[in-house]
Amino acid sequence: MSQVHQVIEPAERQPDSEPQATSTAPRARSRPRMVAGDIGTLLLSAVLALTIWLIATNQENPLTVRQLATPVPLTLVGLGEGLEVVQDLSKESVALVVRAPRTSWESMRDGDFRATLDLTGLGPGEHDVAVKITRRDPQMTVLEVQRPEYTVVLDNRVEKEVPVQVEIMDGAAFGYEWQTPIYTPMTVTVSGPQSQVEQVTRARAEIYLRNAKSQVERTQTLMPVDAQGRTVERVTVAPPGRVQVVVPVEQWPGRKEVAVRVKLSGPPAAGYRLSAVRSEPSTIVLQGDPAILSEVPGFVETEPLDLTNATADVRRRVALLLPEGVTSYDGDFVMATAGVTPIEGGVTVSEPLVVRGLGPGLTATAALDAVDVILSGPMPLLESMNEDDVFAILDLSGLVPGTHAIKPSVVRPSGISLDGVIPETVEVVIRPVETGVVGELQQVPDVEATAAAIAPTTTLTTEAGAGMTIPATPALVTPTPAAPLP
Description:
The protein is of the alpha+beta class and 486 residues long.
């Protein structure tokens, strides 16, 4: 049986082998078509994924197109040795239109863009040079350069020596004249583009005397100018580029300028002092024989200006006391003014404390019964003050029961200055009113409205002794006048 089985087994397998051969042939032919389809599907999937990613990215970080708020300064590079740019491009800039993601706009800062004109290899003459833009962020795209090209004129750099010219722009004071200026250096070297340097004829310095009455000394910057006196641009003067100038100023013969000295008589009123004296004009020009003028001191006096019992400025037209044979070009009279001001002094007064604004049903006690008030002002005002002119007030408006540090306010006459209060704050204890408590504070009327209406008998209880009353009359210290001006 086993042998039969072995014989039959190949016979049984043979029919199976042929269908297998026939079935594998079609599969081998369809494999390329299946691989190509898979690649197409993969490519389509990749394109769809990229599209979805781009859409998502654009929604989260969208691209926007804007013009830069600040134009980009123009920079020159590659200028050849021995060459100069004829025109001034130092202030030129270009405006850019840029497309960039939102995050790039948010992080943008100065210097992200650079605009350059590359002059490498260019010689003398006129050239059209394109603007080159470089950027820091590669996500930024420049869509438009509003001036993409510049015409640049190049020329050889040359130098030459030109004379210095000092020009006086105004005059000396009346009665004076300026002489020929003395200056150094006499010549300077200028340099720049050849076409510009050839126009320069001199280096000019402008000097203003401004009504000078004596020698004028200046150090002035030199400017290269052409034959018509116009400044030539793009040309520089060799360092230091300045000239030192001395302009002598002399008085005309037979004239002499002197000061006016106002003569005074009589003292001001008691408590007042002389603060200033002036005349209009303060100087005059005398005319006469040079020999006589040489004997005149540097001033002339006026007739006396009387200040007897003056309490305010005195202003009057007074005559000049001129020497024999001399006249004044400005007239024989001047307007004289003498300033008269009160003598300043200081005073310290001990002021009883009074209360204002204490709520109903409340009482207050203070650590002090008086404060020292430091005042200053004109002596006549200080001496005329009386006990009802100054008040030290503790304003308790709106305060609830408890302990408070109150800064006293001081009412004083107009014209008197408050220099300080000692101490600056006073401790006040506010309590509800209890029946039979001694030392309740009386309410004080508005002393600022009418100081005289305040009763000086207002009492304030102190912690040192309940029921103590504040003295009604403050202790005045005799005012001490300030030292008069010499």
